[in-house]
C-alpha cells in the first residue's frame, strides 16, 4: 500500500476531525515533511484537506471515482455513452473524440477524462478543468440531418444538460444563448459542438461538455470567481459525477431521438422555457458589428430573434452575447 | 540526360510523324526492349503515344507543365491561389489541404497535384485522377459566415468554375444540382466542399475541385465512358491547365467577394441560369426516402425547390439526383 493511501485511510477514519501531523508521522512511521508531501499529492489528485498549524489536517472532500464499465451499465441508452474511453489525463477530450470520429467510432462514443491539460472552450478560449472535480467529456454524434441543423443540436445539448442537472441538483439552472449554463448569472457549464460536413451533409459532430461539479472557490483563478461557479459551491454539497453523466446520457439520447423523429420545434420550446436570455436586454457582438436588443425567441432554424429599441426584429445566427443591460 | 528525355526529344522533333523502333534503338544506342520500356514510362507520365507495329511510334499528346510560381503570378487575385503547394503525387489534395487548414494556412491556400492515388468524390466515392491530364486541386476558405451558408459556397464554387470553363473553352457546360459540371449529360468536373465548424461558426472550408481537362477516352474505365468526359474529348483539342486554374481563381475570388458583400441572391441567380437541372423531371434519393419531381429553383438558403406531380412544392437540402426522366 502506498503511503498516501495509508494517510488517506487515516484521514477517512476520522471524518470531520483534525488529525495531528505528529500522530500521522508516528502511525505511518515517516517524517513530518514526508506527511506534508503526501498531503500535497492528495490535493493534486482532487482531495481537499484543511491544514491547521495547531490542530493538524482534516479531510474536507474526496473526489468520487468514475468506473467506466459500471458507468456504461448505469444508464439504459441504446447508443449514448455505451462505448466509453476513460483517461486519467488528456490534452483535450475534444481532440481525442475527433480522432475517434475520424477513424469511424460509432455514434454515442464517449471520451471522459479526470483532467484536461489543454481544455478548450468556445472561440479557442481555455477552460479550467482540474483533476477529479468536474466532468470533462466529448461525445461523437452522427445525425443524418443537413448541415444547417448543426446549431439546433447545440441548443438540444444545452437543454438535455440543463434538464438533467436541474433534476439531480434542484438548483435554478438556466441557459444563456446559445449554450452556456448559468446559476444566478455565473457559469457552471460550457458546451462546444464541432461539426465536420461534406457539402450539405454532416459527417459527424463532436459535442464537448465541461461541467464544474465539485470545484471549490480555491480551484478558480481570482478573476474568474465573479463569473464562474460550481454545483458544489451553489448547493453547498458535492455531487456524484457518475450519477450526473448517467442522467445526462439518458436525457440527451431521449431528446436527440425526439429531434430526429419530430424535428426542432419541441426542442426550441424546451430551450425557450429554460433560457435566461429571453426578455433580457443585451449587447451582441456579431461578425457584422455590434447591436443592442432583447432576445424574444428562437426561429425555426435555431437562430435567435432579437427586438431592437425601435421595435424592429433581427435574426442573429452567430454572436457573442454580453451581460444583461437591465438586470432586474 | 535521362534516356526517356532523349526519346521524348526524338519524338518531338517529328511532330505528327511515326518514328520507327529501329531508328530509336539506333539513335539512343539501346535495345528495342529498352525503347519500349521508355515509351511506357512516358505514357505513365501523361504523354500519349500511338504505337504501330509497322510504322513505329507517334507522339499524340504532351501534358502541359504547371509551374506553381508562374501560376501564382498569372492571376491578379488578392488571396485565392496566391500560396500554392504543388505536388507530383499525393493521396488526395483534399487531405493535404485539410491538414494545412488545421495548422492555420491562410484563405486562398491552394494544393495542386499532378496525380492523386486516392482521390475522393462525393460520399466517399473514388475519383479518376491520372497524372498530368487533369486539374486536381483543393483550396482553403475561411469565410466569416454562419454554418448554414456552407451549401451556398458549394453552389458558388460550381458557378465560378462553370463560368471560367465556358469562357475558355466555349463548350456548352451546365451545372447539375448541386455542383457537378456536365457537357451534354456527361460529367467533366466534380466539386466537394468539406467544412469544419465550431457551434454556429465556420472554422474553415476545404473546396476540392477535379477537372477532367486533357483525359482521352482511354483514360477512363469502360463503364465510366457513358457518364464521364473531358474538355479535350468534347472540344477535340487539349487545353492549358495553367490557364484554366488562373481563370478559375480570378472568377472564384470575384464571386466570393460579391457573396460576402451582397449575400447569396446574385449567386443563386447565376446558378439558376447555368443549371441543367431546372425544369428536368428527376428522381431524388434523400435521407428520408425517394421522390420524383421537377426542380424549379433555389430557395434563399441554397436548397432546391422541387415541384411534385400533384403541384406541391418541397424543399430539398440534401439528396442524390438521378438522370433526367423526360430528357427532351
Write the layout of secondary structure elements.
The structure is a homodimer of 328-residue chains.
Chain A: H1 3-12, H2 21-28, H3 32-44, E1 48-52, E2 56-61, H4 68-74, E3 84-90, H5 93-102, E4 110-116, E5 135-141, H6 150-169, E6 173-176, E7 180-183, E8 186-198, E9 201-211, H7 231-235, H8 241-262, H9 265-274, E10 282-286, E11 289-298, E12 304-307, E13 313-316, E14 320-321
Helix pairs in contact in A: 1-3, 2-3, 6-8, 6-9
Pfam family, one (chains A, B): BPL_LplA_LipB
Protein name (chains A, B): Bifunctional ligase/repressor BirA
Binding site for biotin (chains A, B): 116, 120-122, 187
What this model shows, in words?
The structure is a homodimer of 328-residue chains. With 328 residues, chain A is an alpha+beta fold. Chain A folds into three domains: 3-61, Winged helix-like DNA-binding domain superfamily/Winged helix DNA-binding domain (Arc Repressor Mutant, subunit A, Orthogonal Bundle); 68-274, Bira Bifunctional Protein, Domain 2 (BirA Bifunctional Protein, domain 2); 282-321, SH3 type barrels, CATH 2.30.30.100. In chain A, 32% of the residues lie in helices and 27% in strands. The first copy, chain A, has nine helices and 14 strands. In chain A, the strands form three sheets. In chain A, strands 3-4-5-9-8-7-6 form a seven-stranded mixed sheet, with helices on both faces. Chain A has a five-stranded antiparallel sheet with strand order 13-12-11-10-14, with no helix packed on it. In chain A, strands 1-2 form a two-stranded antiparallel sheet. In chain A, strand 12 and strand 13 (313-316) form a beta hairpin. In chain A, helix 6 (150-169) crosses helix 8 (241-262) and helix 6 (150-169) packs across helix 9. Chain A is globular and about 75 Å long. The model of chain A has no long low-confidence stretch (mean pLDDT 90). Chains A, B: Residues 69-260 form the BPL/LPL catalytic domain. Chains A, B: Keywords: ATP-binding, Biotin, DNA-binding, Ligase, Nucleotide-binding, Repressor, Transcription, Transcription regulation. Chains A, B: It catalyses: biotin + L-lysyl-[protein] + ATP = N(6)-biotinyl-L-lysyl-[protein] + AMP + diphosphate + H(+). Chains A, B: Biotin binds at residues 116, 120-122, 187.
Amino acid at each position: 500500500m502506498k503511503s498516501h493511501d495509508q494517510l488517506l485511510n487515516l484521514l477517512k477514519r476520522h471524518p470531520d476531525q483534525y488529525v495531528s501531523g505528529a500522530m500521522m508521522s508516528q502511525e505511518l512511521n515517516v517524517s513530518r515533511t514526508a506527511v506534508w508531501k503526501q498531503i500535497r499529492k492528495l490535493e493534486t489528485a482532487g482531495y481537499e484537506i484543511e491544514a491547521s498549524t495547531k490542530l493538524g489536517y482534516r479531510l474536507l472532500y474526496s473526489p468520487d471515482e468514475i468506473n467506466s464499465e459500471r458507468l456504461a451499465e448505469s444508464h439504459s441508452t441504446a447508443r449514448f455513452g455505451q462505448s466509453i474511453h476513460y483517461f486519467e489525463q488528456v490534452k483535450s477530450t475534444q481532440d481525442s473524440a475527433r480522432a475517434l470520429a475520424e477513424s469511424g467510432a460509432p455514434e454515442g462514443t464517449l471520451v471522459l477524462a479526470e483532467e484536461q491539460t489543454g481544455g478548450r472552450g468556445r472561440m479557442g478560449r481555455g477552460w479550467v478543468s482540474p483533476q477529479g472535480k468536474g466532468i470533462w467529456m466529448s461525445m461523437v454524434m452522427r445525425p443524418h440531418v443537413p448541415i444547417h441543423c448543426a446549431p439546433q443540436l447545440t441548443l438540444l445539448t444545452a437543454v438535455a444538460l440543463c434538464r438533467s442537472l436541474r433534476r439531480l441538483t434542484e438548483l435554478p439552472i438556466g441557459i444563456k444563448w446559445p449554450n452556456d449554463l448559468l446559476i444566478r448569472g455565473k457559469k457552471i457549464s460550457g458546451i462546444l459542438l464541432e461539426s465536420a460536413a461534406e457539402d450539405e451533409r454532416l459527417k459527424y459532430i463532436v459535442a464537448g461538455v465541461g461541467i464544474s461539479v465539485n470545484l471549490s472557490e480555491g480551484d478558480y483563478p481570482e478573476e474568474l470567481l465573479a463569473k464562474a461557479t460550481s454545483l458544489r459551491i451553489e448547493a453547498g454539497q458535492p455531487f456524484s459525477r457518475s450519477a450526473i453523466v448517467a442522467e445526462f446520457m439518458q436525457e440527451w439520447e431521449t431528446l436527440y431521438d425526439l429531434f430526429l423523429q419530430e424535428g426542432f420545434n419541441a426542442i426550441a420550446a424546451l430551450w425557450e422555457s429554460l433560457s435566461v436570455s429571453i426578455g433580457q436586454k443585451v449587447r451582441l457582438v456579431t461578425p457584422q458589428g455590434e447591436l443592442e436588443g432583447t432576445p424574444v425567441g428562437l426561429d425555426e432554424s435555431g437562430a435567435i430573434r432579437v427586438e431592437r429599441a425601435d421595435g424592429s426584429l433581427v435574426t442573429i445566427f452567430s454572436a457573442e452575447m454580453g451581460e444583461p443591460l437591465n438586470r432586474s
